Amino acid sequence: MRTLTVAAFISLDGVMQAPGGPQEDQSGGFHFGGWIVPYADEITGQAIQELFSQPFELLLGRRTYDIFAAYWPHIQAGSNVIADLFNNVPKHVATHRPDSLDWQNSQALQGNLVDAISALKSQGDSQLLTQGSGDLVRQLLAAGLVDELRLMTFPVLLGHGKRLFDDNAQASAFTLAHSITTPGGVLVARYVRSGEVRTGTFEDAKRE
């Protein structure tokens, strides 16, 4: 079974809305679009390249799909590595408008979302990789379908906006598999799901 990896840029208070630009997603009166840009450097660029270095297929919510479809297909082939990847890989989209998926290699998830993604995980070898797609990701976390988290945590508090996690996420333990910190204070971390949440008391720990 292939893995499902959630990749996200988040603030210290868990906001993931509109990291890349002012016009990306202004819903809810969000006016901090582009909040990751001042922290871009060689290390964050390398982390992004590493994320896309293994075979993957994109798993996207409709809003993120529309943002991507309005941009990446218009990049000249061969001029941008990520554009070439995004344009060519399969894209699985959670949408109620399947007939309007015009970006090449795009297909709508059919039927019950959780069942459709569970079926996808049992097919093929390439990892399933989310980008943005907060509503979709929160459903995946609630269903316990996420195997890895690739998070870039930026040293900002945004106060409001769409968040990566909500109260419906299935309780799960993760192991920190790798982490680095950029000179600008961005924590780049990879977490791998490792089972159920364990609990205990400090008294028990002392006896051990």
Gyration radius over CA: 18 Å
**What share of the residues does DSSP label as strand, in percent?**
15-25%
Taken in chain order, the helices and strands follow as: EHEHHEEHEHEEEH
Q: Care to count the β-strands? A: 8
- If strands are numbered along the chain, what order do they take across the biggest sheet? 4-3-2-5-1-6-8-7
Mean pLDDT comes to 94
Main sheet makeup: 8 strands, mixed
Number of helices: 6
Provide an overview of this structure:
With 208 residues, the protein is α/β, with parallel strands linked by helices. Helices cover 25% and strands 25% of the residues. It contains six helices and eight strands, in the order βαβααββαβαβββα. It has helices spanning 42-51, 62-69, 81-88, 113-121, 134-143, 202-207; strands at residues 4-11, 56-61, 91-94, 106-108, 127-131, 148-154, 173-181, 187-195. An eight-stranded mixed beta sheet has the order 4-3-2-5-1-6-8-7, with helices on both faces. The longest helix has 10 residues, at 42-51. 27% of the residues are buried.
